[in-house]
Amino acid sequence: MPHSEKPFKLSIPDAEIDCLRKKLDLTRFPDHPDGMDWQYGVPVDVLRRLVARWQNGFDWRAAETRINQLPQFTRDIEVEGFGTLNIHYVHKRSEAKGAIPLLFVHGWPGHFMEVSKILPLLTSDTGNHRKFHVVALSLPGFGFSEAPKKEGFTVRQFAEVGHKLMLALGYDKYVAQGGDWGYYITRSIAYYYGSEHVKAWHTNMPYTGPPTFAANPLLYLRYLVTPLSSEDIEGLKRNDLWYAEERGFTWIQQT
């Protein structure tokens, strides 16, 4: 793959910011029934606070400066069946000897800034912890990465982009981490490229489904008869009750 890396600095034109402010100025707020909170959607007073925040309380240029403190780049990645996509990413090498290349994949809805707080910790050459060269990409269609122009761009293609990016950066062997949407993508990276390239995979969102007849017939049949234990049911009730109370909903006993 030819060298196509370019440094990236975020610089939104003033005209775009002015356009947003004009749109906010033209906001027409709906009526809201008296005495109602969230039962009929977002309360109007909450919407008014949000609009006011974006109009007068948010300093985009300050945020832009913080974003640009990260070492950002773009690079063209060829994706089989989808042509070339221009991919945006953060890339910070550690000065520590023996640092491990790490591909960090964000979630949904999410973006590359999810890595910002842990980036200095992972790349620091001090302390007794493991040191990493960190790559945090913007997934195609997210942030500043180009979106595919055709249907059918699945987890398999996202995994291909991440893997080819690491190879283009000279990391033939690396580890991967992801949560949420990044969980599915890094799992696919480990599955398709793990035997030769991916030496470890970490996720902060482990997920599994019920047993299948093909994989474990006895466990599958047991699951059909008793899908959940009494402990499972009580745990789900406690979790659902907490979820409902946090959002002001009334708990309805399931039968």
From TrEMBL:
Origin species: Cristinia sonorae
Protein keywords: Aromatic hydrocarbons catabolism, Hydrolase
Family, as annotated: Belongs to the peptidase S33 family.
InterPro entries assigned to the protein according to its UniProt record, in alphabetical order: AB_hydrolase_fold, Epox_hydrolase-like, Epoxide_hydro_N
Pfam families registered for this protein in UniProt: EHN
UniProt KW Hydrolase keyword: yes
PANTHER family in the record: EPOXIDE HYDROLASE, EPOXIDE HYDROLASE 1-RELATED
Coiled coil: none
Protein name: Alpha/Beta hydrolase protein
Domain Epoxide hydrolase N-terminal: 6-115
Domain of life: Eukaryota
Gene Ontology biological-process entries: epoxide metabolic process
GO terms, molecular function: epoxide hydrolase activity
